[in-house]
Amino acid sequence: MLATLALASLGQSASPRSSAFRCQNRHKQCAEWAGRGECNNNIDYMVEKCPAACDFCTNAGLEPTPARFELDYVCDGKIGMSQPSQEAMEMGLPDGCAFHCRDNMPEECTASAAKGACTAHPGSARAACPASCGVCKALDMPTSAPDAYPRPSCGDSSEHCADWASRGECVANFLYMKNNCGLRCGFCTPPSEKPAPTKKKTKEKKKKKKKSKGSSEDSSKDEL
Prior knowledge:
Blueprint: H1 2-10, H2 30-35, H3 38-41, H4 43-49, E1 72-75, E2 78-79, H5 86-91, E3 97-100, H6 106-114, H7 117-120, H8 122-128, H9 135-138, H10 161-166, H11 169-172, H12 174-180, H13 182-185, H14 199-223
Antiparallel strand pairs: 1-2, 1-3
Helix pairs in contact: 1-4
């Protein structure tokens, strides 16, 4: 009974602008708890704290929307290597760190949103394209420019990435494509490779070694 009332409360409008975007996780550990079966074992709590992670949103006539803490965590102009804990967020983020909102795949998101992806695949599209699909605005967050901070580096792990991308899967099936075809979808940039040392530098090192040998021989002669 309590779970039914909680689900019904999700559908109640908080404000005309944000009502369609209000079904969000409210705790950093929602995905972890859902993976442990808490959506069934502790349903009343999970309806309140983790409706998106438990797929409860559609039962309330809503679509899952990324929470602020599920967007890009940027510190000193770079995406953070680790996310802050729930306790750290409640205490306040470190200086120079903040959550940012922008499309994960700029070109793909603009094209897909124009074709109606935000309506056809709202759950996946909101995660992939928060700026184009209205999530940034609903969360009262400014939209960061595509080049405001570097994208992560990655590659593609399937030979079918180009075909899948051409069929709109980058947005329609965002999580899978992000992990397997991130480069093709524009989610990331190619891994940087360190250039091999040039032959010129190698020759210069050899000359230095010869000089040092010669100087040591001269010094030994002087001692004699």
